[in-house]
Design brief:
This protein is of the alpha/beta class and about 400 residues long. It has 18 helices and 14 strands. The two termini are about 30 Å apart.
């Protein structure tokens, strides 16, 4: 429930997720923020591999809790079950019958080998919506199906690194964080919501199969679209000016892709004669003569101004322009504060609040509530197994003793 007891849209939807790192955890965190009850299944020995990322804080038992985990697991409950033991698989399958959604982001084929693949879960829960997020999807015909993937791998394979590569420079990996992960999470969430709607109408569950490479290709749509139209790289493609420029106290971003905007730019920087320069008669020419003509002209003007002043002039003239903010400036940004887009958490032994991006989905009829914290490893194991499966203290103790569940 939100702070004023207004039901959230996914209130009543229950998600059981065997997940790690970012792609599926981001999706299930988004579902939790929208009201779903999310139970996260982790291995007893170390849990989600995102707990081992850096930088990190430490939980009350001194275990590392890494940044990747902290920003993808708010509002969930953690249950530790060893899926390499038959008893552990049995526990998960029994629990699955009580949940609307079952999610996993193993490498393709791993869930099947563990005994918790779609067919195994569907056998005990025919109406389940089963979300699989993997590097390359579940189709055996894919030549990449058996490969593992992180965001940077599928980003590189999407072509965006080469498309954005400047002349005489190597491609830059991971330039914007987890594009491959977050895009997969968003498409996975859309798939789950669509499958739930389908189930509401037909009573039939299904598998949602999201490949990280597919999601990233969709997000970097200009790569394939432009290639089909004869353009292999952004540089020299004739799209216009999309670049950063220096002012007196930092940099700003300018996108100028129309001729009338170029004329405005030249006027505002005090160089109207550049409009009639034959070398700058085309958008391709703007790119070709960026370093010898345009950048010196723009930065000579902007160098006498602050970033805010330069952005104010160009934006005021109708151009698309904004500051290139430093991380510290982003944290202090007034817009993000107004939109509640930086959530403060105090996990473990953190000496100062750890910031996590807030929920970008703002609903006019559903106020945002407080963000529940991330769970410690196995924090809810006994509580969940007792509530979902009716296990008593003796049964739980036996499972702990046999290493099926944990930590103790």
């Amino acid at each position: 429930m939100t702070g004023d007891a207004t039901p959230r849209p996914l209130e009543g939807i229950r998600v059981l997720a065997i997940e790690q790192m970012a792609a599926l955890p981001f999706a299930t965190q988004l579902m939790a923020r929208l009201g779903a009850d999310v139970v996260k299944v982790e291995h007893p020995s170390g849990g989600d591999s995102g707990r081992g990322s850096l930088p990190a804080v430490h939980d009350p038992d001194g275990r590392s809790v890494g940044a990747t985990f902290l920003r993808n697991n708010l509002g969930k409950r953690s249950v530790c079950i060893d899926l390499k033991q038959p008893e552990g698989v049995d526990l998960v399958l029994r629990m699955a019958t009580r949940f609307d959604v079952f999610g996993e982001n193993f490498r393709a084929g791993t869930a099947e080998r563990l005994g918790i693949g779609y067919e195994a879960v569907r056998a005990v829960h025919p109406a389940v919506v089963y979300l699989s997020v993997s590097g390359f999807g579940q189709d055996p015909a894919s030549p990449y199906r058996d490969m593992g993937a992180y965001a940077s791998i599928v980003e590189g394979m999407s072509g965006i690194y080469e498309f954005k590569r400047a002349p005489d420079r190597p491609p830059t990996a991971n330039p914007v964080g987890a594009l491959g992960d977050i895009s997969s999470a968003l498409f996975g969430t859309i798939g789950v919501l669509s499958a739930l709607r389908h189930r509401d109408r037909t009573g039939v569950g299904q598998q949602v199969d999201v490949a990280m490479l597919d999601a990233t290709v969709a997000m970097t749509d200009i790569v394939t679209n432009f290639q089909s139209m004869g353009l292999e790289r952004e540089w020299g493609s004739g799209v216009g000016i999309v670049d950063t420029f220096a002012a007196s106290d930092g940099h700003f971003v300018l996108q100028c892709v129309r001729e009338h905007h170029f004329a405005t730019l030249c006027t505002e920087i005090g160089r109207p004669e550049l409009v009639d320069d034959e070398r700058l008669a085309t958008r391709a020419g703007w790119q070709d003569h960026m370093d010898d003509l345009l950048r010196p002209a723009i930065e000579s003007w902007a160098g006498r101004l602050t970033v805010a002043e330069a952005v104010g002039v160009l934006s005021g003239a109708g151009m698309a322009c904004g500051p290139s903010l430093t991380p510290a400036q982003v944290v202090a940004d007034e817009h993000l504060a107004v939109r509640n887009m930086l959530v403060e958490t105090m996990p473990g032994d953190a000496e100062a609040p750890v910031l996590v991006p807030g929920n970008p989905v703002k609903l006019s009829e559903v106020p945002e509530g407080d963000e529940p914290p991330v769970p410690w490893l196995g924090e809810h194991t006994d509580e969940v197994l007792a509530a979902e499966l009716g296990l008593d203290d003796a049964e739980l103790a036996g499972l702990h003793d046999r290493g099926v569940i944990g930590p103790a």
